[in-house]
Amino acid sequence: MDEQSSLSFKAGEIVYKIDANSDEAYIIIEGEVNLYSRDGFLLASLSDGEMFGETSVIMGEKRSITAKAGVNGLKVKIIPKNNLTNIIEKEPILGALWKKTQLRLIDSNKKNSELFIEVEAITEELEQFISEQNFEGKKSEDLNKRISRIKQLLYSSGI
Asked: Whole-angstrom Cα distance, residue 152 to residue 119?
């Protein structure tokens, strides 16, 4: 692999942002990438050997998520758009399966984002309710710990 076909990113560095043009996909050589929804929710964390960025390339659309390097940085191999389109043209059955999978992924990401928004709203309302009721004791402590854990899961990326 030559230097032109790979890129390195420092921890937290943006690989691409939502609405950017999609001219390539990436295969992770080393490290981790975190994928975020438009609302900033963590959709997935991918690591060595996994591909990302292919959805928008295959579907011919702008980026629908933001990709950021994980806590230990990221090294990727670049997969140019024409490599992916050549595979799809050469193997129409594989192309059809790939597109179907990408449509399901897009739908899943959309539903997850909507769910995250609702969970975030519920946790904020619950925090406010607990505060207004001046609950004390173990039950209140347990609820606050669970709310903190939910927020950590919604936003965590390790960065």
From this structure: 12
C-beta atoms surrounding 50 within 10 Å? 13
> Is residue 97 packed enough to be buried (19+ CB in 10 Å), middle (13-18) or exposed (0-12)?
exposed
Residue 70 token pair: 């994980």
How far, in Å, CA of 2 to CA of 110, rounded? 37
13 in helix, strand or coil? coil
Give the pLDDT confidence of 11-57 residue by residue, as tens digits.
999 999 999 999 999 999 999 999 998 888 888 899 999 999 998 99
pTM of the entire predicted model: 0.74
CATH architecture assigned to 1-159: Sandwich (2.60)
DSSP β-bridge partners for residue 27: 51, 77
Burial of 15 (0-12, 13-18, 19+ CB in 10 A): buried
Among 63, 69, 37, 79, CA closest to 158: 69
Instruction: Tell me the torsion sign for CA atoms 77, 29, 105, 71.
Output: negative
